What does this fold into?
Amino acid sequence: MRTLIIFHSHTGHTRALAERVHGACGGDLVEVRPRTPYGRLSAYLRGAPRARRREADAVEPPVIDVSAYDRLVIGTPVWGGHPTPVINGAVAALQGAGKKSAVIFVTCGARPGDALAVLRAALAGRGVTVVGEHSFAGKELGDAARIAALVGSVRGEGGG
It folds into this structure.
């Protein structure tokens, strides 16, 4: 199964999990970045309200062709209880996404809010079926069992 791991990471937590999945499952790794970067304060003042409104940032890379992949893995921090505007931009940038399956994961300080449901709905709008969902609060980022469950979902060994 050809796997593409797409993620946005603001503080490094989401990147660390994406790299763990990549190390365990292989595939290709794409880090999506906003064309206009967020600082610590602007992520809170500008990014979180935009996330709550489900807005999308212009991103690099501007096009993500997923037609050659069987499984997508998409990871995002949670801002204002929602996926970041950067990952919303990444979903909008997907090409060839119809009839793909995906595993999604979010990283958050305490609670994921509506982030998983919002991301699932956005992907469904692009023809992608989510087959696994995982959230990692700050204290769970190093939890081996939770990481194993994420890896298992990516490998098709069960949902989450």
